[in-house]
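We append the chain.
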Amino acid sequence: MVRPIVKDSLFLSKPSVQAGPEDLSIARDLIDTLSAHRSTCVGMAANMIGFSKRIIAIAPISLPVVMINPRILHMADSYSVEEGCLCHQGTQETQRFRHIEVTWEDMCFETHTASFDDFVAQIIQHEMDHLEGILI
């Protein structure tokens, strides 16, 4: 189900809580909503559609990938970048890392760990900021 984008900064500034199997419908809604905004969006966090759960979806090139309870294990090579978000107007400058290592659970709750670079790493960091209640 495509959900409306939340723009309430008070709600978005609250850290998200761990997700479990009972939250898979949120992950599916996140995929649907990200797909509906594909022309202007490459990633989304669950709080952007009204759920304070630790779930993100990214789609930098093709089909969305869902990451449940993601954690960054390692970051390297800091840089500054301007970013925008569907949750607010305009852009803001922020610090990101070109290389990150992330661990997460997929929709079957199997654990994965992988390294990401450049734009994909930036997308993941932006969405994970949402999970912490950080608005960029």
